[in-house]
Every structure is written in structure tokens, then in C-alpha cells.
Amino acid sequence: MQRPLEPASPSLEMDLLWADPVVGIKGFEPNLRGASFGFGEDVLVETCRRLDIDMVARAHQVRIFIYPKKNTLC
């Protein structure tokens, strides 16, 4: 990505910035901020499997609890 960047909506850049994990949903739902989407644990697990990675680290916002420790993905 070229910087600086002002992401268009909808776009991959917008999703990279604003998509959030949401406890208790499956798949995707509109984000509460009105930008991008919230995604469920099923999406997170499948994405990690497809990318052959062990976890996703959130960088823009500290969360005390996202998913139960049994998964330790986020």
C-alpha cells in the first residue's frame, strides 16, 4: 500500500483498518462504527487456517477479552 492513504469505503484498506472480532456472531455483520464489518470466531479460525498462521494480534485498540483462552487466536 502506498502511504499516506485515505481509504475509500468499501475497500480492502478500510477492512484492514476497521474490521473487528465480535463475540457471539457467526460470519460477518456490519460494523457498529458504520465502517467495514465485525467478524465471528468462525471467520477468525478459518482465516488463520487458510493463511497458516497461529493468531491475529490487534494493533489499534486494547481489549481485555476477545475470545476464550482455549482458542488464543486474538
Q: Which structural class best describes the helix and strand composition?
A: alpha+beta
Using only C-alpha atoms, the radius of gyration works out to 13 Å
| Integer average pLDDT | 82
Report the count of strand segments.
3
Query: Based on the structure, what is the oligomeric state of the protein chains?
Result: single chain
- Gap between N and C termini, in Å? 24 Å
| Helicity, as a percent range | 10-25%
Q: List SSEs in N-to-C order.
A: HEEEH
Strand fraction band? 5-15%
Brief summary:
It comes from Gongylonema pulchrum. This protein has 74 residues and is an alpha+beta fold.
Q: Could you characterize the architecture of this molecule?
A:
The radius of gyration is 13 Å and the shape is globular. The chain is α+β, with helices and mostly antiparallel strands. Helix content is 24%, strand content 11%.
Keywords:
single chain, 74 residues, alpha+beta, 3-stranded mixed beta sheet, 2 helices, 3 strands, 11% strand, globular
Helix/strand layout:
Elements: H1 12-18, E1 20-21, E2 28-30, E3 37-39, H2 41-51
Parallel strand pairs: 1-3
Antiparallel strand pairs: 2-3
